[in-house]
Structure formats: C-alpha cells, structure tokens
C-alpha cells in the first residue's frame, strides 16, 4: 500500500476518493501540520511509499509549467546559530530525494514578491512550497521511500493572472494524469 499525500483537499480535486493501492492523507498547510499528520499516518500503518502531490510556486523561469519531481528540499525560512539563512540549528540543511536539479524551498510563508524570490533563489531554490521539506524529513525518520511531485501553480511573484481556484484545479488535473500514467490507477 502507498500513501497519497497533499496539503490541501483542493490539490486532490481531480482524484477519486478511493484510488486503488493508495490510502489518502490531507495534512493541512505548513510545516507543522505536515509533520504532525504524516508522522501520525506513518506511525499507524506501514506503507511501501509516500507519494506527495501538490502545488508549488516557480522561482526559476527555466522550470516552466507542468509537473516536476522534486530531487532535493531545504527550508528557506530558518537561520542557524551562525546566522546562515537556509540552515537549521539541528536539522539537515537539505534532504536528497533523487538525482536531478529540481529543488524545493519550504517555508511557512506565501512567497509573492521579487525580493523574497531573489533571496530564496540565492539559496538554490527553484520551486517553493510550505510542506515538502517536512514530508521528506518525516518519511526519512520512518525509512519510507518518498516521491514529491509538484505542479507549478504560479511564478511566486507579483502579477499572477489566474485565481487560486483555477490554478489549483488545473494543477490537480495535471497531477492526476501523472499518477495515472506512472502508477496505472
């Protein structure tokens, strides 16, 4: 059995309630809710894999639209004891999820201005969200393989021209198509 995880119910709007071979978990937004919900789920049951699906803002114009598999995650909103941004005092600086260059910067704030984008890009972020680092860390604690697929919902800067409802619906359909293509369900 696999665990299909999303932060928001709206990110699963294109998915059926029951998906063969998967249990479903909606954690709520942010690192704390993601950590809590995934820890409880992995403590309660045994899974072969965690598959996270959801939306992310694009920080790097070369990433483009569509669904991207995340290869490494880090927290953009932490500072270590030496004042180094992007490094936590006791957590790994980054969590590797596979070979490739798609990185995701996780933090508990919505990124919507050019200055914040520039700062996170300087740390290596290409995508941005509010949960991926937490999911990756929890899965590692339970030694469960994890895949994180993010559909680009916006460019994480001023001037988005679609509503959140339109963007999340389109992203959910793209993610559903990817799950169908890869897992056959």
What are the salient characteristics of this protein?
185 residues; alpha/beta
Write a brief structural summary.
The protein is α/β, with parallel strands linked by helices and 185 residues long.
Mean pLDDT across all amino acids: 94
Tally of alpha and pi helices: 4
User: Which percent band covers the strand fraction?
Assistant: 15-25%
Q: How many strands, which pairing sense, and closed or not: the largest β-sheet? A: 9 strands, mixed
Query: What is the percent of helical residues?
Result: 25-40%
Structure description:
By secondary structure, the chain is an alpha/beta fold. It is built from four helices and nine strands; from the N terminus they run E-E-H-E-E-E-E-E-H-E-H-E-H. Strands 1, 2, 3, 4, 5, 6, 7, 8 and 9 form a nine-stranded mixed sheet that branches. Strand 7, helix 2 and strand 8 form a beta-alpha-beta unit. Helix 1 runs parallel beside helix 3. The longest helix is centred in the C-terminal third of the chain and has 20 residues. The mean pLDDT is 94.
């Amino acid at each position: 059995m696999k665990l299909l995880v999303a932060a928001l119910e709206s990110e699963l709007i294109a998915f059926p309630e029951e998906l063969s071979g998967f249990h479903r978990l909606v954690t709520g937004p942010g690192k704390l809710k993601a950590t809590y919900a995934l820890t409880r789920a992995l403590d309660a049951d045994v899974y072969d894999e965690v598959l996270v699906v959801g939306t992310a803002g694009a920080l790097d114009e070369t990433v483009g639209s569509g669904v991207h598999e995340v290869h490494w995650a880090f927290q953009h909103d932490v500072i270590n004891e030496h004042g180094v941004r992007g490094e936590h005092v006791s957590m790994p600086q980054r969590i590797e999820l596979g070979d490739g260059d798609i990185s995701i910067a996780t933090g508990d704030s919505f990124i919507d201005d050019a200055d914040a984008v520039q700062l996170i890009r300087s740390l290596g972020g290409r995508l941005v969200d509010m949960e991926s680092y937490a999911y990756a860390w929890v899965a590692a604690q339970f030694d469960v393989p994890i895949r994180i697929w993010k559909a680009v919902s916006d460019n994480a800067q001023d001037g988005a021209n679609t509503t959140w409802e339109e963007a999340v619906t389109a992203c959910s359909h793209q993610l559903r198509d990817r799950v169908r293509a890869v897992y056959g369900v």
